[in-house]
Amino acid sequence: MKTIVSVLGLASLVALAACDSKQENKVENAYENQADALDNQAANMEAMADNLSGNAENAAENAADALENKADATRDAGEHAADAVEKSENH
Where is this region: Disordered (predicted)? Predict the structure, then answer.
């Protein structure tokens, strides 16, 4: 059953990818690149937190969490922006 679901999911992704325009992909990739950079900053912050203790460690971990949340929000915004491009191209 998992195989059937996986195949159907993959087929859906291929069909969706075929519908994407260059502009839509460009917008989504720009947001994705920005989100990846934020994730990298968060990873660096977490590594730094490992070398700290007490309140400084907590502050660094909180900053890393905030960066990860911002990366997630950026990815969501990218998906919405790409959807908006797709809608504008279809009208």
Answer: 48-91
